[in-house]
Amino acid sequence: MSNVTLIASDPSRLDPLALDQLEACARYRDMARIVGLPDLHAGNGIAVGAAFWSPTRIWPHLVGSDIGCGMALWQTDLPLCKFRLGTVERKLHGLDAPWAGDGAAALAEAGLPPSLASPALGTIGGGNHFVEFQRIEAVVDESRFAALGLALDRVWMMVHSGSRGLGQAVLQVHRQPDVGLGILADSSDASAYLADHDTALGWAIVNRRIIAGRFCECLGLGGRRVLDICHNSVTPHQGGWLHRKGAAPADKGLVTIPGSRGDFSYLVEPVVDGADHALHSLAHGAGRKWSRKDAHARLSRRFKVADMQRTGLGSHVICEDRRLIFEEAPDAYKDIGMVIADLEQAGLIRIIAKLRPLLSYKTRAA
pLDDT tens digit string along 134-171? Predict the structure, then answer.
């Protein structure tokens, strides 16, 4: 795989099936470069945790169905000393229901078609999406932390969600019969896909903002958004097209890289020099170690749901989907510390701060 670069200190740790999926993509017409990141794992036909570059072609399925999925990180105005887990848990209700706000107006304000307002707008969705309240565990780069105006004694909130059903609809419209061939970037088909893609990406950003607002409203909080990055997208890059599938951008400023719900997350700054080696991309999280099916099979026989509602770091979990709580267990994910170490060793990031989970929210019946 001469056109494939792996960002890993020990490539033997990477999932063989994910490597096979990269090799298959390397044979696509005009596929020039592929990068597998430390969180690389097998996906539904396409490896997740990878970036793909072509000078001439676009592949909608490499971006996938959740266009614009990403992470937003907020610093709330709640002092850490006033965060009470029990109180917060009791207040977080009604957040899976449709948002009561004006979705059409929120989309229009962002320059998006108001007609795309739907009951899904402002909701987290399923799978690995979440909202997590965190605190700063350690400041690694104190001068940069201070220069960014960040506060050590505040509660932080991370939002992971995407374009919900809109991205799936876009993929269905533009799905190609010959996946290896893709779409010529200068064609009308590519222009149509990119227009729909950009709309879904913008929708996902609005969605994360509304989700954050809903959670803050429940708790009577304010705050400011520190970053919002998308890890499923296709963008112009060096005269061609860069597809990211579960890969955070290293050319859009600060990045947050979460671990599992029972592990630390990291606030990092990309290192620009040498970033082209990794196609200006970073890991978007810890990456799965087990498939959802395997995680459920392994863990549901050994543990009760109640065991899954607390983590080894002392954080709490709200997830009232009895299958999902096992599928997304910390054991199903890689060690985020090793992922971060690989990125550091490759010279791709500087760590600013390490964050500890306090409360992870996935879904609640009411």
Answer: 999 999 999 999 999 999 999 999 999 999 999 999 99
Q: What is the pLDDT of residue 312?
A: 96
Over residues 97-106, the pLDDT tens digits come to 999 999 999 9
Confidence check: pLDDT of 326 > 70: yes
**Gap between the Cα atoms of 96 and 72, Å rounded:** 18
Query: In sequence order, which residues have a C-beta less than 8 Å from that of residue 230 and are 6 or more positions away?
Result: 68, 69, 70, 201, 204, 205, 244, 249
> Catalytic site residue 284?
yes
Which domains are assigned to the chain? 4-363 (3.90.1860.10)
Which one of 197, 284, 296, 316 is the catalytic residue? 284
